[in-house]
Amino acid sequence: MLGLLRIRVVRGVNLAVRDVRSSDPYLVLRMGNQKLKTRVIKKNLNPEWDEELTFSVADPSVPVKLEVYDKDTFSLDDPMGDAEFDVQPFFEALKMDLKGADDGTVIRKQVPNRQNCLAEESNIYLVKGKVVQDIVLRLRNVECGEIELKLQWVDVPGAKSSLGK
């Protein structure tokens, strides 16, 4: 294990309607064989989860996949789109020598393209000496919706530090 990737699931924006007028959305995040879920937010197309989910990371080349579902009581939960993102650029930023860099320094930018699910430019930057990344993902396989996330790395004492530190 290299360390922990903390993902703050901030909110969903303009999610798809799957019930009569609204949806009861929740997120499932997967990284390799790990699977984490947020709580269900009832009757809301713009849910504010503000939840932290943490993966242990052994291989930074494994993408994080997310799926949004509408919770149903008497039938299978309805899919509300999916997305994935590559954590490799985040790990590369972690390896950089950032001693003396100011708070708010942008280390790297990722731009949306056909190969990723980014809805807008994603900055990797420094906050209180920690590398963080804000990500807005456009959901695929659905008519509308975006998910906002914030990534942060957590060092684990005794973990294989291949981050070059």
Keywords:
mainly beta, Immunoglobulin-like, 6-stranded antiparallel β-sheet, 4-stranded antiparallel β-sheet, 10 strands, globular, GTPase activation, cell membrane
- Lateral arrangement of strands in the main beta sheet: 4-1-10-9-8-7
State the assembly state of the protein chains: single chain
Secondary structure: helix percent: under 10%
Q: H/E order of the elements?
A: EEEEEEHEEEE
**Unreliable runs, pLDDT <50, ≥5 residues?**
none
Using the coordinates above, name the CATH class: Mainly Beta
Strand fraction equals over 45%
Through-space gap between termini? 15 Å
The CATH homologous superfamily corresponds to: C2 domain
Major beta-sheet overview: 6 strands, antiparallel
- Number of strand segments: 10
Average pLDDT level: 93
Secondary structure layout plus pairing:
Layout: E1 3-13, E2 25-31, E3 34-37, E4 48-57, E5 64-70, E6 78-85, H1 88-95, E7 106-110, E8 122-127, E9 130-138, E10 146-154
